[in-house]
Write a structure and sequence with these properties.
Rossmann fold; Arc Repressor Mutant, subunit A; mainly alpha; RNA-binding; two-stranded parallel sheet; 9 strands
RNA sequence: GGCCCUAUCGUCUAGAGGCCUAGGACGCCGGGUUCUCAACCCGGUAACACGGGUUCGAAUCCCGUUGGGGCUACCA
Protein backbone atom coordinates (compact mmCIF):
# COMPACT_ATOMS: atom_id res chain seq x y z
CA UNK A 1 0.00 0.00 0.00
CA UNK A 2 1.34 3.38 -1.04
CA UNK A 3 1.24 6.03 1.66
CA UNK A 4 2.27 9.63 1.06
CA UNK A 5 2.01 12.76 3.12
CA UNK A 6 2.08 16.51 3.08
CA UNK A 7 3.72 17.97 6.16
CA UNK A 8 3.17 21.73 6.25
CA UNK A 9 4.62 23.93 8.90
CA UNK A 10 1.93 26.26 10.28
CA UNK A 11 4.11 29.34 10.31
CA UNK A 12 2.37 31.66 7.92
CA UNK A 13 -0.02 31.87 5.04
CA UNK A 14 -0.93 28.71 3.16
CA UNK A 15 1.61 28.72 0.35
CA UNK A 16 0.87 27.72 -3.24
CA UNK A 17 4.05 25.64 -3.06
CA UNK A 18 2.44 23.62 -0.29
CA UNK A 19 -0.59 23.05 -2.50
CA UNK A 20 1.67 22.02 -5.37
CA UNK A 21 3.50 19.44 -3.26
CA UNK A 22 0.25 18.30 -1.62
CA UNK A 23 -1.25 17.80 -5.05
CA UNK A 24 1.68 15.67 -6.16
CA UNK A 25 1.44 13.53 -3.04
CA UNK A 26 -2.31 13.20 -3.26
CA UNK A 27 -2.33 12.31 -6.93
CA UNK A 28 0.51 9.83 -6.56
CA UNK A 29 -1.15 8.01 -3.68
CA UNK A 30 -4.58 7.95 -5.30
CA UNK A 31 -3.27 6.71 -8.57
CA UNK A 32 -2.45 3.41 -6.97
CA UNK A 33 -5.21 3.24 -4.42
CA UNK A 34 -2.99 4.43 -1.58
CA UNK A 35 -3.51 6.75 1.34
CA UNK A 36 -2.64 10.39 1.70
CA UNK A 37 -1.80 11.80 5.13
CA UNK A 38 -1.68 15.36 6.39
CA UNK A 39 0.69 16.00 9.25
CA UNK A 40 1.35 19.32 10.93
CA UNK A 41 5.02 20.06 11.54
CA UNK A 42 4.76 22.55 14.36
CA UNK A 43 8.01 21.87 16.15
CA UNK A 44 9.01 25.50 15.78
CA UNK A 45 7.25 26.80 18.84
CA UNK A 46 8.14 30.41 18.23
CA UNK A 47 6.58 30.63 14.80
CA UNK A 48 3.75 28.09 14.68
CA UNK A 49 0.21 29.35 15.17
CA UNK A 50 -3.19 27.64 15.26
CA UNK A 51 -4.53 30.32 12.89
CA UNK A 52 -1.99 29.33 10.30
CA UNK A 53 -2.79 25.65 10.71
CA UNK A 54 -6.50 26.29 10.25
CA UNK A 55 -5.86 28.41 7.17
CA UNK A 56 -3.68 25.73 5.59
CA UNK A 57 -6.26 23.00 6.13
CA UNK A 58 -9.03 25.24 4.82
CA UNK A 59 -7.06 26.27 1.75
CA UNK A 60 -6.18 22.73 0.75
CA UNK A 61 -9.80 21.71 1.17
CA UNK A 62 -10.88 24.70 -0.89
CA UNK A 63 -8.68 23.39 -3.68
CA UNK A 64 -10.42 20.07 -3.46
CA UNK A 65 -7.59 18.15 -1.84
CA UNK A 66 -8.64 15.82 0.95
CA UNK A 67 -6.67 13.52 3.22
CA UNK A 68 -7.34 10.11 4.69
CA UNK A 69 -5.59 10.88 7.94
CA UNK A 70 -4.85 14.18 9.60
CA UNK A 71 -5.22 16.31 12.71
CA UNK A 72 -8.85 17.12 11.94
CA UNK A 73 -10.02 13.73 10.67
CA UNK A 74 -7.90 11.53 12.92
CA UNK A 75 -6.55 8.16 11.90
CA UNK A 76 -4.67 5.10 13.16
CA UNK A 77 -1.43 7.02 13.72
CA UNK A 78 -2.82 9.96 15.68
CA UNK A 79 -1.91 12.49 16.82
CA UNK A 80 -0.99 14.15 13.52
CA UNK A 81 0.43 17.26 15.09
CA UNK A 82 4.10 17.01 16.02
CA UNK A 83 3.74 19.23 19.06
CA UNK A 84 1.60 16.44 20.51
CA UNK A 85 4.16 13.75 19.83
CA UNK A 86 7.05 15.09 21.90
CA UNK A 87 7.39 11.98 24.05
CA UNK A 88 8.04 9.95 20.94
CA UNK A 89 10.90 12.08 19.71
CA UNK A 90 12.42 12.18 23.16
CA UNK A 91 12.38 8.42 23.30
CA UNK A 92 14.07 8.02 19.95
CA UNK A 93 16.60 10.73 20.66
CA UNK A 94 17.51 8.95 23.87
CA UNK A 95 17.91 5.72 21.95
CA UNK A 96 20.36 7.36 19.55
CA UNK A 97 22.23 8.92 22.45
CA UNK A 98 22.56 5.57 24.20
CA UNK A 99 23.76 3.82 21.09
CA UNK A 100 26.28 6.56 20.46
CA UNK A 101 24.71 7.61 17.17
CA UNK A 102 23.99 11.05 18.57
CA UNK A 103 25.65 13.24 21.17
CA UNK A 104 24.94 16.19 23.42
CA UNK A 105 26.42 19.46 22.29
CA UNK A 106 26.97 22.31 24.72
CA UNK A 107 28.55 24.72 22.27
CA UNK A 108 27.48 28.34 22.36
CA UNK A 109 25.95 30.08 19.41
CA UNK A 110 28.96 32.38 19.33
CA UNK A 111 31.40 29.50 19.08
CA UNK A 112 29.42 27.88 16.28
CA UNK A 113 29.25 31.13 14.41
CA UNK A 114 32.97 31.61 14.68
CA UNK A 115 33.58 28.05 13.56
CA UNK A 116 31.47 28.53 10.45
CA UNK A 117 33.16 31.77 9.63
CA UNK A 118 36.58 30.12 9.80
CA UNK A 119 35.41 27.24 7.66
CA UNK A 120 34.18 29.60 5.01
CA UNK A 121 37.46 31.47 5.08
CA UNK A 122 39.33 28.21 4.64
CA UNK A 123 36.99 27.28 1.76
CA UNK A 124 35.81 24.26 3.67
CA UNK A 125 32.29 22.89 3.85
CA UNK A 126 30.26 24.22 6.76
CA UNK A 127 30.05 21.42 9.28
CA UNK A 128 30.07 20.93 13.03
CA UNK A 129 33.68 20.35 14.05
CA UNK A 130 32.97 17.61 16.57
CA UNK A 131 34.04 19.65 19.60
CA UNK A 132 31.52 18.04 21.97
CA UNK A 133 32.02 14.65 20.38
CA UNK A 134 35.15 14.38 22.49
CA UNK A 135 33.22 14.66 25.74
CA UNK A 136 33.08 11.44 27.74
CA UNK A 137 29.68 9.94 28.38
CA UNK A 138 30.12 10.69 32.09
CA UNK A 139 30.94 14.31 31.59
CA UNK A 140 28.13 14.79 29.09
CA UNK A 141 25.73 13.24 31.57
CA UNK A 142 27.07 15.31 34.45
CA UNK A 143 26.78 18.62 32.63
CA UNK A 144 23.29 17.81 31.41
CA UNK A 145 22.20 16.91 34.94
CA UNK A 146 23.73 20.11 36.24
CA UNK A 147 21.23 21.96 34.10
CA UNK A 148 23.59 23.20 31.44
CA UNK A 149 21.61 23.78 28.21
CA UNK A 150 22.42 21.46 25.33
CA UNK A 151 21.21 20.19 21.99
CA UNK A 152 21.48 16.68 20.63
CA UNK A 153 23.35 16.32 17.38
CA UNK A 154 23.47 13.54 14.85
CA UNK A 155 26.81 11.78 14.68
CA UNK A 156 27.94 11.75 11.05
CA UNK A 157 30.83 9.59 9.76
CA UNK A 158 34.04 11.42 8.80
CA UNK A 159 34.80 9.42 5.73
CA UNK A 160 32.95 7.51 3.09
CA UNK A 161 29.85 8.51 1.24
CA UNK A 162 26.18 7.79 0.87
CA UNK A 163 24.04 7.49 -2.22
CA UNK A 164 20.68 9.20 -2.25
CA UNK A 165 18.27 7.73 -4.73
CA UNK A 166 15.58 9.90 -6.25
CA UNK A 167 12.67 8.65 -8.37
CA UNK A 168 13.47 11.05 -11.16
CA UNK A 169 17.10 12.03 -10.69
CA UNK A 170 18.47 8.61 -9.94
CA UNK A 171 21.43 8.21 -7.57
CA UNK A 172 23.40 11.15 -6.18
CA UNK A 173 26.53 10.61 -4.11
CA UNK A 174 27.24 12.74 -1.04
CA UNK A 175 30.54 12.67 0.85
CA UNK A 176 29.97 12.32 4.58
CA UNK A 177 32.64 14.88 5.42
CA UNK A 178 30.49 17.55 3.83
CA UNK A 179 27.32 16.57 5.69
CA UNK A 180 26.67 18.57 8.84
CA UNK A 181 26.11 17.01 12.24
CA UNK A 182 22.60 18.34 12.34
CA UNK A 183 20.82 19.27 15.55
CA UNK A 184 18.12 16.69 16.23
CA UNK A 185 16.80 17.98 19.55
CA UNK A 186 16.77 21.68 20.33
CA UNK A 187 17.56 23.00 23.76
CA UNK A 188 13.84 23.51 24.33
CA UNK A 189 13.47 19.73 24.20
CA UNK A 190 11.61 19.76 20.90
CA UNK A 191 12.90 17.95 17.85
CA UNK A 192 14.01 19.62 14.64
CA UNK A 193 12.37 18.78 11.35
CA UNK A 194 15.06 16.22 10.59
CA UNK A 195 14.34 13.95 13.55
CA UNK A 196 10.59 14.46 13.72
CA UNK A 197 10.15 13.90 10.03
CA UNK A 198 12.05 10.61 10.01
CA UNK A 199 10.39 9.28 13.15
CA UNK A 200 6.92 10.21 11.96
CA UNK A 201 7.36 9.02 8.41
CA UNK A 202 8.46 5.67 9.77
CA UNK A 203 5.73 5.41 12.39
CA UNK A 204 3.09 6.56 9.95
CA UNK A 205 4.34 4.02 7.43
CA UNK A 206 4.99 6.57 4.72
CA UNK A 207 6.29 4.71 1.66
CA UNK A 208 7.07 7.64 -0.63
CA UNK A 209 8.34 11.02 0.46
CA UNK A 210 7.52 13.55 -2.23
CA UNK A 211 8.80 16.97 -1.27
CA UNK A 212 10.47 20.10 -2.58
CA UNK A 213 13.93 20.18 -4.07
CA UNK A 214 15.22 22.26 -1.17
CA UNK A 215 15.39 19.04 0.84
CA UNK A 216 17.82 17.18 -1.39
CA UNK A 217 20.85 18.24 0.57
CA UNK A 218 19.44 17.05 3.88
CA UNK A 219 18.44 13.68 2.49
CA UNK A 220 21.76 12.08 3.56
CA UNK A 221 21.05 12.97 7.19
CA UNK A 222 17.60 11.50 6.97
CA UNK A 223 18.88 8.32 5.39
CA UNK A 224 21.53 8.05 8.08
CA UNK A 225 18.81 8.25 10.73
CA UNK A 226 16.92 5.42 9.06
CA UNK A 227 20.15 3.43 9.13
CA UNK A 228 20.79 4.12 12.80
CA UNK A 229 17.25 3.12 13.71
CA UNK A 230 17.37 0.08 11.48
CA UNK A 231 14.30 1.26 9.56
CA UNK A 232 13.48 0.93 5.90
CA UNK A 233 13.72 4.36 4.28
CA UNK A 234 10.92 5.61 2.03
CA UNK A 235 11.37 6.17 -1.68
CA UNK A 236 12.36 9.78 -2.30
CA UNK A 237 11.12 12.17 -4.94
CA UNK A 238 12.18 15.80 -5.02
CA UNK A 239 9.98 18.20 -6.92
CA UNK A 240 11.46 21.28 -8.60
CA UNK A 241 10.70 24.54 -6.82
CA UNK A 242 8.14 27.02 -8.12
CA UNK A 243 9.82 30.23 -9.28
CA UNK A 244 9.24 33.95 -9.47
CA UNK A 245 9.41 35.44 -12.97
CA UNK A 246 13.07 36.26 -12.23
CA UNK A 247 13.65 32.54 -11.59
CA UNK A 248 14.37 32.79 -7.89
CA UNK A 249 12.41 30.54 -5.55
CA UNK A 250 8.81 31.75 -5.38
CA UNK A 251 8.64 34.25 -2.55
CA UNK A 252 6.11 36.70 -1.29
CA UNK A 253 8.60 39.52 -1.48
CA UNK A 254 8.25 39.34 -5.24
CA UNK A 255 4.94 37.64 -5.81
CA UNK A 256 1.69 36.72 -4.13
CA UNK A 257 2.31 33.23 -2.78
CA UNK A 258 -0.64 32.71 -0.50
CA UNK A 259 -3.50 30.49 -1.62
CA UNK A 260 -5.68 32.94 0.28
CA UNK A 261 -4.57 35.66 -2.12
CA UNK A 262 -5.63 33.70 -5.16
CA UNK A 263 -8.94 32.93 -3.51
CA UNK A 264 -9.58 36.58 -2.62
CA UNK A 265 -8.48 37.63 -6.07
CA UNK A 266 -11.31 35.59 -7.49
CA UNK A 267 -9.57 32.58 -8.91
CA UNK A 268 -11.61 29.41 -9.01
CA UNK A 269 -10.21 26.42 -7.15
CA UNK A 270 -10.53 24.20 -10.22
CA UNK A 271 -8.47 26.70 -12.22
CA UNK A 272 -5.68 26.89 -9.66
CA UNK A 273 -5.73 23.12 -9.33
CA UNK A 274 -5.52 22.67 -13.09
CA UNK A 275 -2.72 25.20 -13.30
CA UNK A 276 -0.66 23.48 -10.61
CA UNK A 277 -1.47 20.15 -12.21
CA UNK A 278 -0.07 21.35 -15.53
CA UNK A 279 3.27 21.90 -13.79
CA UNK A 280 3.23 18.31 -12.57
CA UNK A 281 1.83 16.48 -15.56
CA UNK A 282 2.70 17.99 -18.93
CA UNK A 283 0.40 17.54 -21.91
CA UNK A 284 1.17 16.80 -25.52
CA UNK A 285 -1.78 18.42 -27.20
CA UNK A 286 -4.26 21.13 -26.37
CA UNK A 287 -7.07 18.61 -25.97
CA UNK A 288 -5.51 17.27 -22.79
CA UNK A 289 -4.83 20.58 -21.20
CA UNK A 290 -7.96 20.95 -19.10
CA UNK A 291 -8.17 18.46 -16.31
CA UNK A 292 -9.11 17.86 -12.71
CA UNK A 293 -7.85 15.85 -9.76
CA UNK A 294 -8.74 12.41 -11.06
CA UNK A 295 -7.13 13.00 -14.42
CA UNK A 296 -4.01 14.24 -12.69
CA UNK A 297 -3.80 11.02 -10.70
CA UNK A 298 -4.02 9.05 -13.88
CA UNK A 299 -1.44 11.06 -15.76
CA UNK A 300 1.15 11.87 -13.10
CA UNK A 301 4.49 10.25 -13.89
CA UNK A 302 7.51 11.11 -11.78
CA UNK A 303 9.75 9.17 -14.11
CA UNK A 304 9.51 11.83 -16.78
CA UNK A 305 8.54 14.97 -14.90
CA UNK A 306 10.46 18.07 -15.98
CA UNK A 307 13.10 19.22 -13.48
CA UNK A 308 13.61 22.82 -14.52
CA UNK A 309 11.93 24.95 -11.86
CA UNK A 310 8.73 26.27 -13.44
CA UNK A 311 7.90 29.96 -13.29
CA UNK A 312 4.51 30.61 -11.74
CA UNK A 313 2.94 32.11 -14.85
CA UNK A 314 -0.08 34.15 -13.79
CA UNK A 315 -1.06 34.86 -17.41
CA UNK A 316 -1.67 31.17 -17.98
CA UNK A 317 -3.59 30.93 -14.72
CA UNK A 318 -5.75 33.84 -15.87
CA UNK A 319 -6.55 32.09 -19.11
CA UNK A 320 -7.48 28.89 -17.30
CA UNK A 321 -9.60 30.79 -14.83
CA UNK A 322 -11.43 32.53 -17.65
CA UNK A 323 -12.09 29.18 -19.20
CA UNK A 324 -13.61 27.76 -16.03
CA UNK A 325 -15.69 30.86 -15.46
CA UNK A 326 -17.15 30.65 -18.94
CA UNK A 327 -17.84 26.98 -18.55
CA UNK A 328 -20.17 27.61 -15.64
CA UNK A 329 -23.88 28.10 -16.12
CA UNK A 330 -25.13 31.54 -15.07
CA UNK A 331 -26.62 29.95 -11.96
CA UNK A 332 -23.31 28.32 -11.08
CA UNK A 333 -21.44 31.53 -11.66
CA UNK A 334 -23.89 33.40 -9.49
CA UNK A 335 -23.33 30.89 -6.75
CA UNK A 336 -19.56 31.08 -7.09
CA UNK A 337 -19.74 34.85 -6.88
CA UNK A 338 -21.95 34.62 -3.82
CA UNK A 339 -19.47 32.41 -2.07
CA UNK A 340 -16.60 34.65 -3.05
CA UNK A 341 -18.05 38.03 -2.16
CA UNK A 342 -18.76 39.57 1.25
CA UNK A 343 -21.27 38.02 3.55
CA UNK A 344 -24.40 39.77 4.76
CA UNK A 345 -22.74 41.31 7.81
CA UNK A 346 -19.87 42.75 5.80
CA UNK A 347 -22.26 44.13 3.22
CA UNK A 348 -24.17 45.92 6.00
CA UNK A 349 -20.92 47.36 7.22
CA UNK A 350 -19.89 48.53 3.78
CA UNK A 351 -23.19 50.34 3.23
CA UNK A 352 -22.94 51.95 6.66
CA UNK A 353 -19.44 53.20 5.92
CA UNK A 354 -20.57 54.66 2.61
CA UNK A 355 -23.81 56.22 3.78
CA UNK A 356 -22.47 59.48 5.09
CA UNK A 357 -20.23 59.90 2.06
CA UNK A 358 -22.80 59.77 -0.71
CA UNK A 359 -25.49 62.10 -1.98
CA UNK A 360 -27.16 59.85 -4.49
CA UNK A 361 -27.72 56.12 -4.46
CA UNK A 362 -25.79 56.04 -7.69
CA UNK A 363 -22.67 57.17 -5.79
CA UNK A 364 -22.62 54.00 -3.74
CA UNK A 365 -21.24 51.50 -6.24
CA UNK A 366 -18.35 53.64 -7.49
CA UNK A 367 -17.34 54.49 -3.93
CA UNK A 368 -17.28 50.84 -2.86
CA UNK A 369 -15.98 49.31 -6.07
CA UNK A 370 -12.42 49.04 -4.82
CA UNK A 371 -13.56 46.59 -2.15
CA UNK A 372 -14.70 44.20 -4.85
CA UNK A 373 -11.67 44.60 -7.04
CA UNK A 374 -8.41 42.68 -7.11
CA UNK A 375 -5.84 45.32 -7.79
CA UNK A 376 -6.57 49.02 -8.26
CA UNK A 377 -4.87 51.36 -10.68
CA UNK A 378 -2.46 53.78 -9.04
CA UNK A 379 -0.13 56.35 -10.50
CA UNK A 380 2.93 58.05 -9.20
CA UNK A 381 1.12 61.41 -9.28
CA UNK A 382 -1.81 60.34 -7.13
CA UNK A 383 0.39 58.42 -4.69
CA UNK A 384 2.68 61.34 -3.90
CA UNK A 385 1.80 64.67 -2.33
CA UNK A 386 3.49 67.89 -1.29
CA UNK A 387 4.16 66.45 2.13
CA UNK A 388 5.41 63.05 1.05
CA UNK A 389 8.13 62.58 -1.53
CA UNK A 390 8.90 59.41 -3.45
CA UNK A 391 11.66 58.29 -1.11
CA UNK A 392 9.51 58.58 1.98
CA UNK A 393 6.61 56.97 0.20
CA UNK A 394 8.63 53.95 -0.88
CA UNK A 395 9.90 53.43 2.59
CA UNK A 396 6.46 53.93 4.10
CA UNK A 397 4.96 51.31 1.80
CA UNK A 398 7.75 48.83 2.41
CA UNK A 399 7.63 49.23 6.17
CA UNK A 400 3.85 48.91 6.19
CA UNK A 401 4.05 45.66 4.22
CA UNK A 402 6.59 44.15 6.55
CA UNK A 403 4.79 45.19 9.69
CA UNK A 404 1.45 43.97 8.44
CA UNK A 405 2.91 40.63 7.42
CA UNK A 406 3.59 39.45 10.92
CA UNK A 407 1.18 38.59 13.64
CA UNK A 408 -1.86 36.38 13.52
CA UNK A 409 -4.34 39.26 13.71
CA UNK A 410 -5.39 41.57 10.92
CA UNK A 411 -7.98 43.68 12.70
CA UNK A 412 -8.62 47.39 12.82
CA UNK A 413 -6.59 48.08 15.94
CA UNK A 414 -3.57 46.14 14.71
CA UNK A 415 -3.58 47.83 11.34
CA UNK A 416 -3.94 51.28 12.82
CA UNK A 417 -1.20 50.60 15.33
CA UNK A 418 1.24 49.37 12.71
CA UNK A 419 0.59 52.14 10.23
CA UNK A 420 0.91 54.83 12.89
CA UNK A 421 4.13 53.19 13.99
CA UNK A 422 5.45 53.57 10.46
CA UNK A 423 4.69 57.29 10.53
CA UNK A 424 6.53 57.58 13.85
CA UNK A 425 9.46 55.63 12.50
CA UNK A 426 9.71 57.97 9.53
CA UNK A 427 9.19 61.06 11.65
CA UNK A 428 6.17 62.26 9.73
CA UNK A 429 2.60 62.90 10.82
CA UNK A 430 0.29 60.03 10.10
CA UNK A 431 -2.17 62.52 8.67
CA UNK A 432 0.36 63.42 5.98
CA UNK A 433 1.17 59.80 5.27
CA UNK A 434 -2.40 58.55 5.18
CA UNK A 435 -3.12 59.81 1.67
CA UNK A 436 -0.45 57.47 0.35
CA UNK A 437 -2.14 54.49 1.97
CA UNK A 438 -5.59 55.57 0.85
CA UNK A 439 -4.46 55.73 -2.74
CA UNK A 440 -2.50 52.49 -2.56
CA UNK A 441 -5.35 50.57 -0.96
CA UNK A 442 -8.42 52.13 -2.58
CA UNK A 443 -6.99 53.77 -5.67
CA UNK A 444 -8.29 57.15 -4.55
CA UNK A 445 -7.50 59.79 -1.95
CA UNK A 446 -11.21 60.20 -1.28
CA UNK A 447 -12.54 56.93 -0.04
CA UNK A 448 -14.05 54.86 2.75
CA UNK A 449 -12.16 54.80 6.06
CA UNK A 450 -8.79 53.18 5.56
CA UNK A 451 -8.56 50.73 8.45
CA UNK A 452 -12.09 49.42 7.96
CA UNK A 453 -11.44 49.00 4.27
CA UNK A 454 -8.25 47.09 4.94
CA UNK A 455 -9.99 44.70 7.29
CA UNK A 456 -12.68 44.10 4.68
CA UNK A 457 -10.12 43.52 1.96
CA UNK A 458 -8.03 41.20 4.04
CA UNK A 459 -4.32 40.89 4.50
CA UNK A 460 -3.54 39.31 1.15
CA UNK A 461 -5.22 41.88 -1.05
CA UNK A 462 -3.82 44.72 1.07
CA UNK A 463 -0.32 43.36 0.81
CA UNK A 464 -0.65 43.06 -2.94
CA UNK A 465 -1.94 46.61 -3.31
CA UNK A 466 0.86 47.98 -1.20
CA UNK A 467 3.29 45.96 -3.29
CA UNK A 468 1.76 47.26 -6.51
CA UNK A 469 1.99 50.87 -5.31
CA UNK A 470 5.56 50.31 -4.22
CA UNK A 471 6.43 48.86 -7.61
CA UNK A 472 4.85 51.93 -9.25
CA UNK A 473 7.30 54.07 -7.29
CA UNK A 474 10.25 51.96 -8.32
CA UNK A 475 10.28 49.16 -5.76
CA UNK A 476 12.92 48.45 -3.16
CA UNK A 477 16.47 47.35 -3.84
CA UNK A 478 18.01 44.49 -1.94
CA UNK A 479 20.36 46.91 -0.18
CA UNK A 480 17.50 49.16 0.89
CA UNK A 481 15.54 46.21 2.11
CA UNK A 482 18.40 45.15 4.30
CA UNK A 483 19.04 48.63 5.64
CA UNK A 484 15.39 49.45 6.29
CA UNK A 485 14.65 46.17 7.98
CA UNK A 486 17.63 46.49 10.25
CA UNK A 487 16.52 49.93 11.41
C1' G B 1 33.24 30.16 -0.15
C1' G B 2 31.57 24.70 0.11
C1' C B 3 28.10 20.84 -1.40
C1' C B 4 24.08 19.56 -4.52
C1' C B 5 20.28 20.10 -8.42
C1' U B 6 19.28 22.01 -13.20
C1' A B 7 19.38 23.99 -18.71
C1' U B 8 14.15 23.32 -25.79
C1' C B 9 10.23 29.61 -28.07
C1' G B 10 9.13 35.54 -23.35
C1' U B 11 6.36 31.55 -20.08
C1' C B 12 4.56 26.14 -19.27
C1' U B 13 6.23 22.21 -22.04
C1' A B 14 6.42 17.69 -26.16
C1' G B 15 10.83 15.29 -27.48
C1' A B 16 13.77 9.04 -24.19
C1' G B 17 19.90 8.80 -31.30
C1' G B 18 17.26 8.98 -37.28
C1' C B 19 9.77 10.25 -37.37
C1' C B 20 12.66 17.42 -35.88
C1' U B 21 12.83 21.99 -42.08
C1' A B 22 11.79 20.84 -33.34
C1' G B 23 5.15 19.87 -32.00
C1' G B 24 1.29 22.05 -28.56
C1' A B 25 -0.54 25.71 -24.95
C1' C B 26 -0.33 30.76 -22.70
C1' G B 27 1.31 35.58 -24.10
C1' C B 28 2.14 38.83 -28.19
C1' C B 29 0.98 40.40 -33.46
C1' G B 30 -2.45 40.09 -37.76
C1' G B 31 -7.15 38.53 -39.87
C1' G B 32 -12.31 36.66 -39.54
C1' U B 33 -17.03 36.83 -36.77
C1' U B 34 -19.72 40.71 -34.30
C1' C B 35 -24.05 46.73 -31.99
C1' U B 36 -18.76 47.65 -28.46
C1' C B 37 -15.58 44.63 -25.75
C1' A B 38 -14.68 39.93 -24.60
C1' A B 39 -15.33 34.90 -26.05
C1' C B 40 -14.75 31.99 -30.47
C1' C B 41 -12.25 30.66 -35.33
C1' C B 42 -7.94 31.21 -38.67
C1' G B 43 -2.93 32.71 -39.42
C1' G B 44 1.85 34.61 -37.75
C1' U B 45 6.18 35.68 -34.37
C1' A B 46 9.51 32.89 -31.41
C1' A B 47 13.72 28.03 -28.74
C1' C B 48 17.43 23.04 -28.69
C1' A B 49 23.01 28.19 -23.71
C1' C B 50 28.22 27.49 -25.51
C1' G B 51 32.58 24.31 -26.61
C1' G B 52 34.50 19.61 -27.12
C1' G B 53 33.76 14.46 -27.77
C1' U B 54 30.92 9.37 -28.88
C1' U B 55 28.16 7.89 -33.43
C1' C B 56 27.01 6.75 -40.28
C1' G B 57 23.66 10.20 -37.64
C1' A B 58 22.59 14.14 -31.39
C1' A B 59 17.78 18.62 -28.88
C1' U B 60 18.37 13.58 -27.28
C1' C B 61 24.58 10.00 -24.69
C1' C B 62 29.55 11.69 -22.22
C1' C B 63 32.96 15.71 -20.55
C1' G B 64 33.92 20.83 -19.77
C1' U B 65 32.36 26.01 -19.63
C1' U B 66 28.60 29.40 -18.74
C1' G B 67 23.83 30.59 -16.88
C1' G B 68 19.82 29.62 -13.28
C1' G B 69 18.37 27.46 -8.59
C1' G B 70 18.65 25.17 -3.71
C1' C B 71 21.10 24.06 0.84
C1' U B 72 24.86 25.74 3.97
C1' A B 73 20.13 27.62 11.58
C1' C B 74 18.71 25.12 18.22
C1' C B 75 13.24 27.35 10.54
C1' A B 76 10.73 24.02 8.07
Amino acid sequence: MIRTRIAPSPTGDPHVGTAYVALANYAFAKRQGGKFVLRIEDTDQARSTPESEAAILRSLRWLGISWDEGPDVGGPHAPYRQSQRSALYEKYARELLEKGDAFRCFCSAARLEEMRETQRLLKQPSRYDGHCLKLSADESERRANAGEPFVIRLKVPDRGSITVDDMRRGPTVFEWNAVDMQVLMKSDGLPTYHLANVVDDHLMEITHVIRGEEWISSAPKHLLLYQYFGWKPPVLMHLPLLRNPDRSKLSKRKNPTSILFYERMGYLPEALLNFLGLLLAPVESEHEELFGLDDLSRRLDFGTISLGGPVFDVAKLDWLNGHYIRKKSPAELEEAFGEWTYDRAALHEIVALAQQRIERLSDLAPLCAFLFAGRVAVSRETLLSAKIDAETARKALALAMWRLDDGPLFDKATIEGELRAVADELGVKFRDLSRLYYVAISGSAASLPLFDSMVLLGRDLCRERLRTALAELGGVSAAEQKAWRAA
